[in-house]
Structure formats: C-alpha cells, structure tokens
Design brief:
Blueprint: H1 9-41, E1 46-50, E2 74-80, H2 86-95, E3 100-104, E4 111-113
C-alpha cells in the first residue's frame, strides 16, 4: 500500500515563498558581513594579508560561507594599536575569525593577539 501525499498549490507557493525569504535574508546577512570586512580593511592603520593556498600554516579560506561570494580569507591582519582600542579590536576579531592579529605600537616590539601558544 503506497501513501501518496497531496498538497494544494497554495501551500506549495507558501512554502517556496518562505524558503526564498529565508535564503534572501541569509544572502543579505552575508553581504553585510562582507561590506563590514571591506570597510574595516580600508581603515587607516590596518593592513590585511590575504590567505595563501600554498602555505600549510595559513588558513586558506574565508570563514563560513563567505567564499561563495568571492570574499578572500585573511591570514594575518596588522593593526596599529594607536588606531584601535580594546573594544574595536574585539569587533575586528569577530569580523575576521580566520585571521591572526599582529598588533604594534610605535616604539614597542610586536606582540601577537591571540597568543601564538594558547
């Protein structure tokens, strides 16, 4: 005995519409994240280094599904400490979870954030 599911056309259209709205919201969120990343890299005192697919020490891809939109990953981001403060550095870390941050202050040696040996 086979069970045959029957749907009304109206229900089918409603499900497709909800699916498209969810997909559109996800795309909008990803595009916003990319815009924030690009704006952060355009700030004075911040320099990003795109990931190299040839180095085994660098993470070669951008986080999550940003690679679907052509956003390159950043292996290292150099930050001048006089340009960013603690909260801004945390925001940068949230925008670039794949990157290692090298923070420098004029007259002081470089230190790595997060630490190289956790």
């Amino acid at each position: 005995m086979s069970i045959r599911l029957q749907f009304k056309f109206r229900s089918f259209v409603a499900v497709i519409t909800i699916g498209c709205l969810c997909l559109g919201g996800w795309v909008a969120h990803q595009r916003h994240w990319i815009a924030l990343r690009q704006a952060a890299l355009a700030m004075d005192g911040i320099q990003g280094n795109p990931s190299s697919k040839h180095s085994i020490h660098d993470k070669p891809y951008s986080p999550h599904t940003l690679w679907l939109f052509g956003e390159p990953g950043q292996s290292v981001i150099h930050v001048a400490l006089d340009r960013l403060h603690g909260e801004e550095l945390q925001e940068m870390r949230a925008l670039f979870p794949e990157a290692r941050f090298v923070v420098s202050q004029p007259g002081e040696p470089l230190f790595h954030w997060p630490p190289l040996n956790p």
